[in-house]
Amino acid sequence: MVLQGLRSPPASKQPHTETGFTQGGKQAGMTTIIPGSTSQALAAAVADECGSTLTVPTYRRFSDGETLASIPEFDDSEAVIVASTATNDAHIELLQLQDAAREAGAETITTVIPYLGYARQDKAFKQGQPISVRAMAKAISTGTDRVLLVEPHEPAVTEFFSVPAEPIEAAGLLTGPLEVLAEPLFVAPDEGAIELATTARNAYGEGTVDYFEKQRDYDTGEVELTPSDAPVEGRDVVVVDDIIATGGTMSGAISVLNERGAARVYALCVHPVLAESALTKLSAAGVERVVGTDTLETAVSDVSVAPAVASKLAA
Questions:
Q1: Pick the catalytic residue: 26, 123, 214, 281?
Q2: Which of 3.90.180.10, 3.60.40.10, 2.60.120.10, 3.40.50.2020 is the CATH number of 2-169+304-314?
Q3: Beta partners for 241?
Q4: Helical H runs in the chain?
Q5: pTM exceeding 0.70
Q6: Are the CB atoms for 306 and 45 separated by under 8 Å?
Q7: Least-confidence region, from 13-17, 42-46, 293-297
Q8: Least confident of 20-29, 142-151, 305-314
Q9: Which pairing describes strands 185-188 and 165-168: parallel, antiparallel, or unpaired?
Q10: Tens digits of per-residue pLDDT, 20-62?
Q11: Active-site annotation holds for 281
Q12: Strands (E), 152-254
């Protein structure tokens, strides 16, 4: 990683020999990585993986609430922006970084969104509601040439972008920190997450896969979980989902599994949103450990998606 604005070490001492990339994996000049404020550590890790320059943005908030993201030291024809959009401000910041890069002379912009906010609003659930993620995708598409999304809630959201958009798989990375498990059972909190649980099981190398039946009341937000008949007594159980938000679904699953005699219950997620009292709920339910990635930089972000992002950038 090379910081723009700082003197680089002599070429003989440079830690990387790679030269950056363009779409299609073609080698070119050094590509500059632009970090969003919510993805600073991940952006630095991606720069290290790619042997790329890392520019240093500045962020301001004015008295009227408006924000301004700038890249005063950016000087490149290619830019890769790495920015999660977990908040409304983060969405605005991303659009500003895209426009600033283009204004500064970037001819090619790739936007990496480790966590795409509004991804769960992928349909109009009631009359008069928007498809919010489609609106976000349209806005993001105007300032970029390519989009990469790490494990979006629904892969089909890539179709809402008007530029090439691809998902990056990360669920297989989650089992790295796990210790040796006893008769492991990998469980999805609903049928929609069974592919993630299967990917995690395959990455771990052994175990079986099952899932809960889940019913959600979209008026109240309450979730009802119905366990399967899979035997769990004395076994280590790993619950795998793409997102842990408030922790309600995950803590409910953990409680049921502990009541049924599981030896230890682990919670794995790609995106550790961990809103409100989520970690407290998981602890109270008896979780052994929570493992997440750095798509959102939190206390449980023990796994980095940087290698997966770098690999996709070079593809």
A1: 214
A2: 3.40.50.2020
A3: 269
A4: 40-50, 88-103, 132-141, 194-204, 248-259, 278-285, 306-314
A5: yes
A6: yes
A7: 13-17
A8: 20-29
A9: unpaired
A10: 554 444 334 459 999 999 999 999 999 999 999 999 999 999 9
A11: no
A12: 165-168, 185-188, 208-211, 213-216, 223-226, 236-244
Closest by CA to 122, choosing from 153, 149, 148, is: 153
Ramachandran quadrant class, 24 (left: phi over 0; alpha: psi -120 to 50; beta: rest)? left
| pLDDT (tens digit per residue) in 92-118 | 999 999 999 999 999 999 999 999 999
CA distance 267 to 152: 19
How far apart CA 79 and CA 84 sit, in angstroms, is 16
What's the mean per-residue pLDDT of the chain?
Answer: 89
Please name every residue paired with 80 in a beta bridge, in sequence order, or none if there are none: 33, 110
Which residues lie below 8 Å from residue 46, measured CB to CB, with a gap of 6+? 33, 52, 80, 82, 112, 306, 309, 310, 313
Percent of the chain with pLDDT over 70: 86
Q: With respect to CATH, is domain 172-294 assigned 3.40.718.10?
A: no
Backbone angles phi, psi at 254, to 5 degrees: -65, -45
Residue 19 pLDDT class (50, 70, 90 cuts): very low
CA 19/CA 314 separation, integer angstroms = 11
Cα 153 to Cα 121: distance, rounded to the nearest angstrom: 10
Q: What is the DSSP letter of 35?
A: E
What residue ranges do the domains of the chain occupy? 2-169+304-314, 172-294
